[in-house]
Amino acid sequence: PISDTDAEVTLSAPRPEADALVGGLIQIEAEILRITAVSIDGLSYSVERASHESQPAAHGVGSPLYYLESSVFVIPFVRDFFGSPASGQYTQPLYWPDVRVAAAEMTVTNIYGSSAITRRNLTLNSTLGLRTLSGGQLTLQVDGPLAIGSSVTPILLVERLQAIREVYAVVAEAPSGDSIVARVLRGGVPYADLTIISGMTQSNTVSGFGLPPLESGERLTVDILNVPSSASGAPGRDLTVTLSR
After folding, report:
1. How far is the C-alpha of 211 from the C-alpha of 76, rounded, in Å?
2. Which pLDDT band, with edges at 50, 70 and 90, does 135 fall under?
3. Would you report the helix, strand and coil content of the chain in percent, each value rounded to 5?
4. What are phi and psi of 193, to 5 degrees?
5. Cα–Cα distances in Å, from 132 out to 5, 75, 159, 173, 192?
6. CB under 8 Å to 114, separation ≥6 — which residues?
7. Please, what's the b/e burial string for 110-149 (b: 16 or more CB within 10 A of its CB; e: otherwise)?
8. How far apart are CA 126 and CA 169, in angstroms?
9. Is 55 helix (H, G, I), strand (E, B) or coil?
């Protein structure tokens, strides 16, 4: 664990040198930190705390650490733009799907030189950043009364790399006497577990934050791990699992 004033972060395992570069940014929960030194064994970093106006905080053992990649966008302005009426209403859309933006920097350059850099964090929300996604959804369905089984839906092939916003399931007829437990698998590996409790028609919602993105060519399937027995009630019917993106 680290307190809100510690200047060193210890890892459970080393990362590739390309990830842990001096000057690079990392994120732990809502805090942005800048790496100032890397130990020889790669298991600890000296860090500058509370970068990009984020708030320093204590972080417990096992807190995930994210290495932030950077992208540069160059936006042109016409001469004498700043100070004109247009500058007060200016917006610039950026097409940047399937990312989570944790921090931003801006500087302005002209013939006289460059301005100071303004830095902001975007982590003070439930997803610890601004998720852009790409729109649409993937669905897996099984018709009729439900029963325990593997690969109960047709295989769904992922057509391109994409991040997932959330995963949830619904049934046309609620189970009674016990819960339905369904598991989404990607390439045979568990991805998200969903539970529809007795008397309900919708499951819990699993946030896509922290879930790995789906890779092009991966296969999605659904296993049903539990349904009410015929002796205790009804198993529910017509299951639809949705992965929104």
Report:
1. 36
2. confident
3. 5, 40, 55
4. -105, 135
5. 32, 19, 19, 34, 21
6. 107, 108
7. eeeeeeeeeeebbbeeeebbebebeeeebebebeeebeee
8. 21
9. coil
- What is the identity of the amino acid at 125? N
Q: Which pTM value belongs to this model?
A: 0.79
Structure tokens at 223: 């296993």
Dump pLDDT digits (tens) for 166-216: 999 999 999 999 999 999 999 999 999 999 999 999 999 999 988 999 999
Q: What single letter denotes the amino acid at residue 111?
A: I
- Six token digits for residue 40: 């020889």
Length of the chain: 245
pLDDT tens column, 6-20: 999 999 988 876 666
